[in-house]
Amino acid sequence: MNKKKISIAVIKRLPRYYRYLYDLLKLGITRISSKELSERMNITASQIRQDLNCFGGFGQQGYGYNVESLFNEISNILGVNETFHTIIVGAGHMGQALANYGNFEKRGFKVVGIFDVNPAVVGTAINGIEVLHIDKLDEFIKQNKVDIGILTVPYDQTPAVADRLARLGVKGLWNFSPMDLELEHDVVIENVHLSDSLMVLGYKLNEMRNRNKSKN
C-alpha cells in the first residue's frame, strides 16, 4: 500500500465503497468499470480512480475492477478482517441501541463489555452481555483485551471517562458526546455528532422547499 498521507475525505469514502462492493457481490457482479461504479455511487469516475490510486489503484485498463478483489482490498484497508474488542461506557438509550446493533460484529467490532453507574441497569444483560458498574472498569480492562471504547456518557463526564480509558491503554475512542473530544494521550478519536447530520438534512429540506416556492 502507498505510504503517503491519505486525506480524511478519501478515508471517509472507503466505507461507502465497501458497502457498494458488498452489494455488487450479492448481485453476482464480478467486474465493474469506474464509470459504472460512479453511476451507482453518484460520484465521478475520476474521483473513484483518484481515491483508489491512493492505495495502489487495483484496476486494469480495459477491464475495470475485479469486484471481489477490490472488496477484499478495501476490507483489509479498513481493518474489517480484524477483530477489535470494544466496550461501551454508558448504558442509556444510545448505549443500549449500539449494544444491540448486530452489524458491528460483522464488521469486526466485538462488544465485550458494557459499563454504567445507574443501579437500574447495572446487573442487567444487554444482548447477552452483563452491564457492570463503572467501578469495575479498570479491573476489566486489565484482565481483558480492549481496543476501542464507545462513549455514550453525559457531556460533562466525557473528558474524564475518555482520559481514564486512555490511561488504561485503550487506543481507540468512538465519542457520541456532543463535543469534539481531544486528549493528550496517543489515542485515536472519532467524534460522532448525530445532530449535525440531522441539521444537514434540515438544510437540504429547507432548500427543497425554497426551490419549490420559487417555481410557484
UniProtKB/TrEMBL annotation:
Any single GO CC term annotated in Swiss-Prot or TrEMBL for this entry: cytoplasm
Keyword Phosphoprotein applies: no
Extent of the signal sequence: none
Superkingdom of this protein's organism: Bacteria
Residues noted as binding NAD(+) in the record, renumbered to the chain: G90, A91, G92, H93, M94, G95
InterPro entries noted in UniProt: CoA-bd (IPR003781), NAD(P)-bd_dom_sf (IPR036291), Rex_actinobacterial-type (IPR058236), Rex_DNA-bd_C_dom (IPR009718), Tscrpt_rep_Rex (IPR022876), WH-like_DNA-bd_sf (IPR036388), WH_DNA-bd_sf (IPR036390)
A Gene Ontology biological process term: negative regulation of DNA-templated transcription
Record's subcellular location: Cytoplasm
Residue ranges flagged as DNA-binding region: 16-55
Gene3D superfamilies: NAD(P)-binding Rossmann-like Domain (3.40.50.720), Winged helix-like DNA-binding domain superfamily/Winged helix DNA-binding domain (1.10.10.10)
Domain CoA-binding: 79-180
A single MF term (Gene Ontology): DNA binding
DNA-binding is among the record's keywords: yes
Keywords, in A-Z order: Cytoplasm, DNA-binding, NAD, Repressor, Transcription, Transcription regulation
Subunit structure: Homodimer.
Family note: Belongs to the transcriptional regulatory Rex family.
NCBIfam families per the UniProt record, alphabetical: PRK05472.1-3, PRK05472.1-4, PRK05472.2-2, PRK05472.2-3, PRK05472.2-4, PRK05472.2-5
Role played: Modulates transcription in response to changes in cellular NADH/NAD(+) redox state.
Protein name: Redox-sensing transcriptional repressor Rex
Native organism: Clostridium thermosuccinogenes
